[in-house]
From TrEMBL:
<dbReference type="InterPro" id="IPR001585">
    <property type="entry name" value="TAL/FSA"/>
</dbReference>
<comment type="similarity">
    <text>Belongs to the transaldolase family. Type 3B subfamily.</text>
</comment>
<dbReference type="InterPro" id="IPR004731">
    <property type="entry name" value="Transaldolase_3B/F6P_aldolase"/>
</dbReference>
<comment type="function">
    <text>Transaldolase is important for the balance of metabolites in the pentose-phosphate pathway.</text>
</comment>
<dbReference type="InterPro" id="IPR013785">
    <property type="entry name" value="Aldolase_TIM"/>
</dbReference>
<dbReference type="GO" id="GO:0004801">
    <property type="term" value="F:transaldolase activity"/>
</dbReference>
<dbReference type="GO" id="GO:0005737">
    <property type="term" value="C:cytoplasm"/>
</dbReference>
<keyword id="KW-0808">Transferase</keyword>
<keyword id="KW-0963">Cytoplasm</keyword>
<dbReference type="GO" id="GO:0016832">
    <property type="term" value="F:aldehyde-lyase activity"/>
</dbReference>
<comment type="pathway">
    <text>Carbohydrate degradation; pentose phosphate pathway; D-glyceraldehyde 3-phosphate and beta-D-fructose 6-phosphate from D-ribose 5-phosphate and D-xylulose 5-phosphate (non-oxidative stage): step 2/3.</text>
</comment>
<keyword id="KW-0704">Schiff base</keyword>
<dbReference type="Pfam" id="PF00923">
    <property type="entry name" value="TAL_FSA"/>
</dbReference>
<dbReference type="InterPro" id="IPR018225">
    <property type="entry name" value="Transaldolase_AS"/>
</dbReference>
<protein>
    <recommendedName>
        <fullName>Probable transaldolase</fullName>
        <ecNumber>2.2.1.2</ecNumber>
    </recommendedName>
</protein>
<feature type="active site" description="Schiff-base intermediate with substrate">
    <location>
        <position position="85"/>
    </location>
</feature>
<dbReference type="InterPro" id="IPR022999">
    <property type="entry name" value="Transaldolase_3B"/>
</dbReference>
Length: 217
C-alpha cells in the first residue's frame, strides 16, 4: 500500500515529502477552505513539492456534469500530475466518463458502498475514494468496505486504484493495508503518530546513556 497525504497545508506536505513516505496528495473543498487560499495557487504550490498524483476537487457548488467537466479541464491544465476529484453522483459519473475519454485522470470521491465504487470504476475512474472514518462515525465498519471493494475489483479484474480516505488514526492505516487498499491518504498528524513507539524512544535513550557512560558526550 502506498501513501498520499490528505491536506492542502503546504508545510505538512513538505514535511511528509521530506520523510520520503508519500507519493501523492489529496485535497477536498473543506481542506482548501481551511487554508483560506486561492485554489489554483495552493494546488500549483503543492505540485511544485510532490512529484506524484495530486487530487483537486471540483467546486462543492458545481453539481451538474457540464460544470464539472469544464472545471475538470481547468484543474487538469494546472499541472500534468493533476487528478480531478469528482463526487459520486449520477452527474459526477457522467463527468468522470467524459474527462476519462479526454485522457484526464479522475478520483471519484465520497464512496460509501461497494456498488458506488463499481459504478465509478466502470465510468473510467482512475481512483475511487471510500471514506472509512465517516462510516465508522455512524457505526459501520469502514475497513469492511475497503475489503469488499478490493475483492470485487480483484474478481472483475478492475484496474481502478482504491484510495482509503477519511483515515483518522494509525490502526486505520494497518487495517486498510490488510484489507487491500492500493493507497491510504493520511493526514500529517496520523503519519507522525505512525512513526512513534515508546520502545523506540526508550531504546534511543538507553543507547545514548550507554554510549555517554563510556565515551562521554
Ligand atoms: C479524501 O480524499 C478526503 O479528503 C478525506 O480523506 C476526508 O476525510 P475526513 O472524513 O476526515 O474529512
Amino acid at each position: 500500500m502506498k501513501f498520499f497525504i490528505d491536506t492542502a497545508k503546504v508545510e505538512d506536505i513538505k514535511k511528509a515529502n521530506d520523510m520520503g513516505v508519500i507519493c501523492g496528495v489529496t485535497t477536498n473543498p473543506s481542506l482548501i477552505a481551511k487554508e483560506g487560499r486561492v485554489f489554483e495557487e495552493v494546488i500549483a504550490e503543492i505540485a511544485s513539492i510532490v512529484d506524484g498524483p495530486i487530487s483537486g476537487e471540483v467546486k462543492a457548488t458545481t453539481t451538474d456534469a457540464e460544470g464539472m467537466i469544464k472545471e475538470g479541464r481547468e484543474i487538469a491544465k494546472i499541472h500534468p500530475n493533476m487528478v480531478v476529484k469528482i463526487p459520486m453522483t449520477v452527474e459526477g459519473l457522467k463527468a468522470c466518463k467524459q474527462l476519462t475519454s479526454e485522457g484526464i485522470k479522475t478520483n471519484v470521491t465520497l464512496i460509501f458502498t461497494a456498488n458506488q465504487a463499481l459504478l465509478a470504476a466502470r465510468a473510467g475512474a482512475t481512483y475511487v475514494s471510500p471514506f472509512l472514518g465517516r462510516l465508522d462515525d455512524i457505526s459501520v465498519r469502514g475497513t469492511d468496505l475497503i475489503a469488499e471493494i478490493a475483492e470485487i475489483f480483484k474478481i472483475a479484474g478492475i484496474k481502478t486504484e482504491i484510495i482509503a480516505a477519511s483515515v483518522r488514526h494509525p490502526m486505520h492505516v494497518t487495517d486498510c493495508a490488510l484489507a487491500g487498499a492500493d493507497i491510504a491518504t493520511v493526514p500529517y498528524a496520523v503519519i507522525e503518530k505512525m512513526t512513534e513507539h515508546p520502545l523506540t524512544d526508550a531504546g534511543i535513550e538507553k543507547f545514548q546513556a550507554d554510549y555517554k557512560a563510556v565515551f562521554g558526550e
